[in-house]
């Protein structure tokens, strides 16, 4: 797993649980890689014959997508990648499962967002994938906000081209009834007390979701729970996407000693 930092990551533990349950001979290793070293690290994967690939986390999801040889539709539509598969000839193929994991976690709690309004804070790699998954889940209207306004505008334009029937905007309509508010930014990581969106602006019953993996409940999520909101945590999203990650890395079934993801 490649990230900067990696002390907060939960995927290696979730992967280990999957490998033990499935009796698979595989391990995921967290590797701390600075942004300037990402190209060389991905290049090294090409010759690493006992490595199935790598899971990509913050802040590398956008940069990793540009360094690969082929991409799934999810990567091409979002411009971001969170899992890289090393093919037998050393080529690298990228996939994006953050959206699948987020939607799977919501579904496991019985939440249905068809025709309802959703707010997404963060238009980076994970945010792009979650936005696409929400549109594919049938949300009525999706509002995307980012501290860099141009990044939100660019994502909205890309999603509008990909899903022209969808309603995506940067400004909440006057009758916006938020059923889901998702933080797809690093705000809250490591116990940061800041809130990515004011909870007092959300209606009662609005689902409050975070993708930050550590702490398991960010201060925003803890405060939302105290206000009576249904919540979804970062580790729940990680668990939700593990089936998609493992099936992409190991499409032919069991991992072998020659197939161990970083």
Molecular structure report:
With 262 residues, this protein is an alpha/beta fold. The protein folds into 2 domains: 2-97 and 241-249, Rossmann fold, CATH 3.40.50; 99-238, 3-Layer(aba) Sandwich (Rossmann fold). Helices cover 35% and strands 16% of the residues. The protein has 9 helices and 12 strands. The protein has a 6-stranded parallel β-sheet with strand order 9-8-7-10-11-12, sandwiched between helices. The protein has a 4-stranded mixed β-sheet with strand order 3-5-6-4. β1, α1 (11-22) and β2 form a beta-alpha-beta unit.
Helix content: 25-40%
- Please count the helical segments: 9
Order of helices and strands: EHEHEHEHEEHEHEHEEEHEH
The fourth-level CATH homologous superfamily of the largest domain is NAD(P)-binding Rossmann-like Domain
Q: Tell me the β content.
A: 15-25%
Total tally of structural domains? 2
Summarize the model shown:
The protein has 262 residues and is of the alpha/beta class. 35% of the residues lie in helices and 16% in strands.
